Model the fold of this input.
Amino acid sequence: MPDPRPHLGEPLALDLLNTRWMNNGPQDLLTDVDGLEIWLASAGLTGRAFADEPTLDAARVARAAIHDVVVRGAGDARARAALEVVLAHGRIRRTLTADGPATEVEVDDPAWLPGWLAAENLLELLAEAPHRIRQCAHDRCILFFYDTSKNGTRRWHSMSTCGNRAKAARHYTRKA
Done:
């Protein structure tokens, strides 16, 4: 089944957040295991994680924690604590293999792997450029994006949808 979400291709943490969107009301891809399976495939995690109830529950917990950090900021103690709960389920282990240095992700329960990877990705984004993690500026859009524009002033998750809606609304207001 194809991914029904209107915006794909963001870093894993934001892609997990974007499993909620608006389309004639709120939509949520993670309402059931079938939706989880779609997200795992879209995120390239199909071979690494199983689409089952424990993984669905863990992904929802991770999504809520990531959302709180992105919306409230890293300064919010409750948001940080929620993300720490997710991060406590795994770690990165550095090893030396015959091919050279390697990084391995270890989780205490396989169900936590997708959510843990998304939380780890959020830490990478926050370390790299936290000001480039944005929510779409359209007042009825709940999608998030990582601003990769050269000057860092992107406002919309997609200019062809939310950006055009805003431009059309301004035009209509001027004409009315």
Notes: The radius of gyration is 18 Å.
